[in-house]
Each structure stands twice: as C-alpha cells, then as structure tokens.
Amino acid sequence: MKHHINLYGAEFRPKRQWASLNQMALAWGLCLLLLAAVGLWYGWQQQGVSRELAQLQAMLEVKRGEAQRLDAELARHQADGQLQQQLTNLQEELTAKQGLIQQLGSLSLQKSKGYAGVMADLARLRDPRLSLQRIEISDGHINLSGVAERSQDVPAWVNRFKQTPSLAGKQFGELTLSRDKGGQLAFQLSGIEQEKP
After folding, report:
1. How many domains are there within the chain?
2. Which residues are bridge partners to 148 per DSSP?
C-alpha cells in the first residue's frame, strides 16, 4: 500500500495579500482617472452653460437698449397738457350736442307722430258725402271745417271717430252749420280735445 505524504501543506502556500502597494496604486490611479473624466465633463457642461448665459446677457442688453430707445420716443410723443384739455372739452361739447340732437329728434318725432296719427285716422274715415277743407291742430285741440251734402252726414261722420285710436272719445265744444251762396252746407267742428298721455 502506497502512502503519500504531502510536504507542501496549505500553510506553506503563498497567501494572497489584499491592499498591496500595487493594488492601492492601481485603485488610486483609477479613482484619479475617473475624477479627471468627471471634471472634464463638468467643465465642458460649464462652458456650454457659460456660452448660453453670455448669449442671453447680450440679448438682454439689446432689449434694454431698445426699451430705453422706445421710452425716449414715447416721452417725445407725449401729448401736450393743453391739447389734452382742449380734446376733453371738445369731446364733452360733442356729447352735449349729440344729446341735444337726440332730444330734438325725439320731440319732433312725437309731434309728427301725433299729427300723423290724426291725419291717418281722418283719411280712413273719409265719406263721399262730405269733404274737409281745413284742418287745424293746435294746443291739444282740433278744428275741422268743410262742406257736406246733408246736415245729418256730419254727426254720422263724427260718430265714426270712436273707431279710431287718435280720435276716439273726443268731445266737441261747438258744431256750426251754415249754407253759403251756392247752397252748399258748410260745417265747422271745434274743440276736439286730444288725449292726454
């Protein structure tokens, strides 16, 4: 039987040493290389940011110069205080005149509207047996005069006034009938009060 004796035991084998000088030098070299790379990268980024900042500052200076130029032009174009006051006075005068024109227009419209309604109603109530020769509207009174064929035609015609909006409910102060030289029957109605609003 063969026996082996191992004279090269584990205690005689070289042991691996950690943190040796070579390993530490390599680790420090790698760290320094990494730090240098990071520093170069940050430096490159910083240069880009610095270039952008310089461009923005240049644009800002241009804008500030343009703003100062526009402010100077605006100050030169400011309106004179006296001219501003004249403009305000003219605008107030124009507003007052426009209000006056509106009031006069509404007043004339009311007058023409009142006369127009009476005239339109009289035209609707026309009667072939009588004819109007004169219409007078003054101070809320209407005076009518004309000729009729018969005396009863005038009251019948006046009775139809209640069918119209502007003449309905009017009272006569006086009715005069007379014959002229030609034999025509002339009539005159006076004192027809206009409705009060």
Report:
1. 2
2. 130, 185
Q: Which candidate, 135, 147, 142, places its Cα nearest to that of 190?
A: 142
In the sheet that holds 130-138, the strands lie side by side as 130-138, 141-148, 185-193, 174-179
Q: Which amino acid is at 88?
A: T
Query: For the whole prediction, is pTM greater than 0.90?
Result: no
pLDDT of residue 197: 44
Q: Which tokens is 5 given?
A: 């004796």
The pLDDT of residue 113 is: 52
Domain that holds residue 60: 20-71
113 & 66 share domain:
no
Q: What CATH number did the domain enclosing 152 receive?
A: 3.30.70
Question: How does pLDDT run across 79-121, given as a tens digit for each residue?
Answer: 677 888 888 999 998 888 888 777 766 655 555 555 777 788 8
DSSP character string of 135-174: EEEETTEEEEEEEESSTTHHHHHHHGGGGSTTTTT---SE
Measure the CA–CA gap between 176 and 189, rounded to whole angstroms: 7
Most confident of 1-5, 39-43, 152-156: 39-43
